[in-house]
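seq:
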Amino acid sequence: MDAKTIQYLENQLIEKFTFQQIDKWNLAIQMIAEIGNHDSHLRDDIIYPNLAHLLHDSHFTNDELLTITNKLFSEEHLWFDMENNIPYSALNRTFTSLQITILVYVHFRDNIYDTLFFKQLFVSYLDYYKKESDLRGYEKEVGWIHSVAHGADVLAQFARCSDIDVQDCMDMFQAISDKFMISHYSYVSDEDERSVEVLINVLNRKILSNEFLISWVQKLGNYPRPTTYPEVYRININVKSLLRSLYFRLIDEIEYNFLTAEIKKVLLENVKLR
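struct:
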């Protein structure tokens, strides 16, 4: 991306993203090509908000958004170097996720995809979320990577959509619990709070049974316990953080007293608050 384009994008931060006197399509394609740039200022502060506004603010037709969607879900971006052979390749994937969040929201608002295609997007994204192995939150050299938090942002938008059915919601709950029942990494960058947003959005739709929710909490509390340190410490803190965050989001919701009571019981008896 040349200096003139970067300056234009910086000016848009001041001009409230009006995108005057510019080829918007070409601008979007240029930003997508740099979506995972290692320069955190360019990636986070310039490309992310400008591209998000282009996608969000009705600058493109549905067909154009469909083309961009297919590009983002390709091996160039969301599925780029899943084996992590290239240093910091996860930046491409995780900042692609943030733009997918915008697109799923736009679908929720404007119904831009047909049902079958949208379900295919959900299945593909959930598959990616499960397989993403770079779990780092923040790295001094490149800034935020944050795959679990960004992934949760995407799933939180999917969870609001009526095309996502009961089984899809159950699959999201399972994917999130699996992501937290790990012993090789401790989440320390708000991943628990961002992930709970997915759960809350599902709960707000009131399509999951009480029996499923109680069972989910119990299974999460019965996580596989390593016998060595620091592994046992890592998985304990991950599970504890997720359950605590959910507990405090629901503590004042009378209709979920049954669930907060179960979370408290599991924390005290299984996960062991200490």
